[in-house]
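Quick illustration, no need to memorize.
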Amino acid sequence: MSGMEVSELQHVQENADLVFSAHQIAVAIENMATELEQKIKHQNAIMLCVMNGGLITTGDVMRGLQCDVRLDYLQVARYRDKTVGGSLHWHKEPQLSLEGQVVVLVDDIYDEGYTLEEVVSYCKRKGAKQVITVVLLFKEKEGRKVSMRPDIYGLEVSDRYVFGYGMDYKGYLRNLPAIYAVK
């Protein structure tokens, strides 16, 4: 990484607004896991992580469950290390068969809704009996064209570019334990 990129990342971090602390996120994750468990207990569910952003949320929600689930992942991208989304690109499909299964899709943020809508459609085409959508952040957005909403979400955020806790800024800063917004 060049010095200019390092200084840009430092500038972004130093000038960002804290949106949700690690404690606020932990409480939201606990509530999400409790709600999800009520929906899937006594079922043989597959938890399907939407990579890369959903990695941290998936792990934390999964650890909060008292019921057993199988884990798989898929990888799609709209942002591809940019701050503006484009068309959806599929990089990896799940290994487990979704035929007749309860599928729990976990992602980091519900923004425009295109990614979640497409992945839900994919799961249904693959024969999922039920698809439950779980996201950490629900972004308040005017004029959203996608009508579906996530079944479970932890926190609402205003329409700003956010990063941390799995969400990136130009491919970096996913590892931050809190969520920040670019000024």
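Strands lie at 17-20, 45-51, 69-77, 89-92, 102-110, 130-139, 152-157, 162-163, 179-181.
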